């Protein structure tokens, strides 16, 4: 390793750790020309600050700089191994063998390679190889018109379309000093919650399928399909795509103020019945308790994964955007402490109930109209939202109607670090599909 | 009951092999109707946004119930009749697609799923994106959509094997 590179990495790491100790959140670390910039956010305060930490000519700090995150480059496939620390990873011994899985694996799954070091049935280490589906999102956005960049942002992760569009829109609005009206804010929150609803229902369905509880899986998949169909009726797209835009709406959407409350009520009634039956099924619960526990509390995890392991953070409460100051009033983020598969199941269930309650409160959503023509100036803005999988950060520099630079930090790219640690934590091979389903992280958000 | 049926079937031959008037073989020369009653599908993600995976995953739900057509997903390319490819086709996935295709037994079909696999969608021209699946493996059918709904997917698959509303037109 190059001496300069090592120095930069170490100093960057200690800087990030110091910032976290001081009560800050490291939102992103990225190279800007020949220097490295760190974006910090003090929880509970609205302001996001950015510091320049000097040149880092060889390091790739956007990935290497994060505490407890390290990438080792692999030459052959152009893919990289993601592992917590090289020293922990070396597993040697009689009877030890590697079980390779991927990038083509399971029935329907995203491209990622798992290499599990196994002795008998127990998994002792897991190496993840990533980089199979890099689409060059940041490079593609550079210089693109705001409308075109928004379309790319919506396709970073298909199941978090609204979250990405909203984070991008908030960043552009922040950069240009735009404000949106109350009805737009209410509708944005409602769409984001509907997205969380279908995403969590899908995650729970795949968890139920992984544990062999096929009746519950069938019920949850069916329920998810009804939510997607409602989204199609409401916005014209099953995944609510092509609606949210900087300054307002890209196209008008239907007035659903009459159907929405009764629809969510029916979804809640059916979901409560499925959850009750799952909570009484020992063969389901026994597979979750203690499986895939996250061993270290020092990991800065976000979203459902973080909240299930005692990191009680949720952007909707910490830095409320859109209509969340009102929707979150009198509620607390769902949380659990064990950090195992049951914790993630519990938090998802609670959040579904919470999303339904928020949708009901948002109720009375009127129809939306198209946005006013934007007067594009120059500026730099930040967008921070809670996507279904956790905190999503956008940093967008706009100039003359075009995106100059765009940096994205997704929840999955932070949380994937916990997967090798959780899988290699006294679990056996048969637990792997359950742990994988309980995390439900997107590979598309890891390989941007 | 079994033996009389067996003898009749032997005498008539498998009905799906007899080509009806109007149906055409696939572009690649594979008689897609071979698979009209039983199709093992291997999915391959070549750089998607996970929207297509989400919709493909719903095919197994009771709403669409893929298995009622005799279709199923298989974990191994060795057991697969059809390769269902999603995503923009990244450079890193090119050797993987070739290896998976080669591992499948003949005859075999390939379906490009979603706008990304059809023409790259918004990612056309991005660094590290090939964008054109037909350059790598012969493609029998295209199912456009961003993402294609489970209805579109079912219609595409059924049409390909000669059972859909547009039977004989696709492929």
Write the layout of secondary structure elements.
The complex is a heterodimer of chains A (448) and B (171).
Chain A: H1 3-21, E1 24-32, E2 35-42, E3 48-55, H2 61-64, E4 71-73, E5 80-82, H3 86-89, E6 96-101, E7 113-119, E8 122-130, H4 137-141, H5 146-154, H6 161-176, H7 182-210, H8 214-235, E9 244-245, E10 248-249, H9 259-279, H10 282-288, H11 303-307, H12 315-318, H13 324-327, H14 341-362, E11 378-387, E12 390-399, E13 402-409, H15 411-415, H16 418-423, E14 427-428, H17 432-439
Antiparallel strand pairs in A: 1-2, 2-3, 4-5, 5-8, 6-7, 7-8, 8-14, 9-10, 11-12, 12-13
Helix pairs in contact in A: 5-6, 6-7, 7-8, 7-14, 7-17, 8-9, 9-14, 14-17
Chain B: H1 2-12, E1 39-45, H2 51-58, E2 71-73, E3 82-86, H3 94-103, E4 109-113, H4 114-119, E5 141-143, H5 150-160
Describe it.
- The complex is a heterodimer of chains A (448) and B (171).
- With 448 residues, chain A is an alpha+beta fold.
- Chain A folds into two domains: 3-64, Metal Transport, Frataxin, Chain A; 138-411, Cytochrome-c3 Hydrogenase, chain B (Orthogonal Bundle), CATH 1.10.645.10.
- Chain A has helices at residues 3-21, 61-64, 86-89, 137-141, 146-154, 161-176, 182-210, 214-235, 259-279, 282-288, 303-307, 315-318, 324-327, 341-362, 411-415, 418-423, 432-439, and strands spanning 24-32, 35-42, 48-55, 71-73, 80-82, 96-101, 113-119, 122-130, 244-245, 248-249, 378-387, 390-399, 402-409, 427-428.
- In chain A, strands 4, 5, 6, 7, 8 and 14 form a six-stranded antiparallel β-sheet that branches. A three-stranded antiparallel β-sheet of chain A has the order 1-2-3.
- The longest helix of chain A is centred in the middle third of the chain and has 29 residues, at 182-210.
- Mean pLDDT of chain A is 83; it is low at 1-7, 57-79 and 83-87.
- By secondary structure, chain B is of the alpha/beta class.
- Chain B has a single domain, classed as Rossmann fold.
- Chain B contains five helices and five strands, in the order αβαββαβαβα.
- Chain B has helices at 2-12, 51-58, 94-103, 114-119, 150-160, and strands spanning 39-45, 71-73, 82-86, 109-113, 141-143.
- A five-stranded parallel β-sheet of chain B has the order 2-1-3-4-5, with helices on both faces.
- In chain B, α3 (94-103) links the parallel β3 (82-86) and β4.
- In chain B, 49% of the residues are buried.
- Residues 13-26 and 166-171 of chain B have low confidence and may be disordered.
- The interface between A and B is large, with 46 and 45 residues.
């Amino acid at each position: 390793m190059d001496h300069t590179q090592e120095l930069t990495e170490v100093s960057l790491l200690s800087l990030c750790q110091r910032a976290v100790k001081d009560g800050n959140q490291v939102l992103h670390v990225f190279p800007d020309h020949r220097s490295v910039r760190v974006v910090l956010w003090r929880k509970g305060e609205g302001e996001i600050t950015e510091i320049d930490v000097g040149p880092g000519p060889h390091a790739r700090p956007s990935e290497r700089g994060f505490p407890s995150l390290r990438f080792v480059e692999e030459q052959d496939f152009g893919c990289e191994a993601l592992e917590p620390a090289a020293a922990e990873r070396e597993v040697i011994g009689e009877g030890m063998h590697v079980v390779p899985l991927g990038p083509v694996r399971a029935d329907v799954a995203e491209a990622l390679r798992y290499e599990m070091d196994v002795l008998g049935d127990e998994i002792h280490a897991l190496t993840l190889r990533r980089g199979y589906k890099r689409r060059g999102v940041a490079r593609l956005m550079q210089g693109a018109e705001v409308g075109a960049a928004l379309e790319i942002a919506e396709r970073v992760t298909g199941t978090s379309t609204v979250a990405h569009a909203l984070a991008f829109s908030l960043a552009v609005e922040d950069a240009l000093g735009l404000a949106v009206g109350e009805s737009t804010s209410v509708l944005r929150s409602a769409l984001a919650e509907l997205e969380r609803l279908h995403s969590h229902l899908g995650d729970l369905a795949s968890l139920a399928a992984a544990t062999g509880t096929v009746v519950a899986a069938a019920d949850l998949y069916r329920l998810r399909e009804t939510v997607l169909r409602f989204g199609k009726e409401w916005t014209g797209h099953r995944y609510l795509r092509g609606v949210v835009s900087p300054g307002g709406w890209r196209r008008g959407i239907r007035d659903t103020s009459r159907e929405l409350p009764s629809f969510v009520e029916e979804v809640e009634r059916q979901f409560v019945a499925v959850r009750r039956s799952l909570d009484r099924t020992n063969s389901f619960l026994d597979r979750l308790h203690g499986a895939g526990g996250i061993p270290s509390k020092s990991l800065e995890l976000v979203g459902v994964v973080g909240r299930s392991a005692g990191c009680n953070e949720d952007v909707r409460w910490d830095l409320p955007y859109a209509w969340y100051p009102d929707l979150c009033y009198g509620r607390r983020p769902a949380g659990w402490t064990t950090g195992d598969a049951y914790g993630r199941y519990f938090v998802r269930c609670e959040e579904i109930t919470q999303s339904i309650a928020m949708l009901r409160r948002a109720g009375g959503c009127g129809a939306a109209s198209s946005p006013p023509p934007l007067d594009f100036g120059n500026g730099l803005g930040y967008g921070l939202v809670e996507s279904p999988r956790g905190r999503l950060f956008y940093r967008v520099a706009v100039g003359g109607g075009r995106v100059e630079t765009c940096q994205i930090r997704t929840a999955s790219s932070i949380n994937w670090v916990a997967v090798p640690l959780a899988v290699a934590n006294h679990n056996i091979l048969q637990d792997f599909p359950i742990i994988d389903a309980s995390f439900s992280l997107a590979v598309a958000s890891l390989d941007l | 009951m079994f033996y009389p049926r067996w003898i009749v079937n032997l005498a008539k031959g498998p009905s799906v092999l007899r080509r009806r008037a109007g149906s055409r073989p696939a572009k690649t020369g594979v008689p897609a109707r071979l698979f009209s009653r039983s199709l093992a599908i291997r999915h391959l993600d070549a750089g998607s946004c996970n929207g297509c995976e989400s919709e493909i995953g719903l095919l197994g739900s009771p709403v669409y119930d893929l298995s009622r057509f005799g279709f199923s997903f298989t974990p191994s390319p060795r057991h697969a009749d059809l390769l269902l490819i999603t995503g923009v086709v990244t450079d890193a996935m090119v050797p993987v697609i070739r290896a998976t295709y080669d591992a499948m037994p003949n005859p075999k079909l390939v379906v490009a799923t979603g706008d990304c696999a059809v023409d790259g969608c918004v990612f056309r021209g991005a660094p590290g994106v090939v964008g054109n699946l037909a350059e790598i493996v012969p493609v029998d059918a295209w199912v456009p959509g961003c993402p294609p709904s489970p209805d579109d997917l079912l219609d595409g698959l059924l049409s390909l094997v000669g059972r859909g509303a547009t039977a004989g037109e696709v492929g």
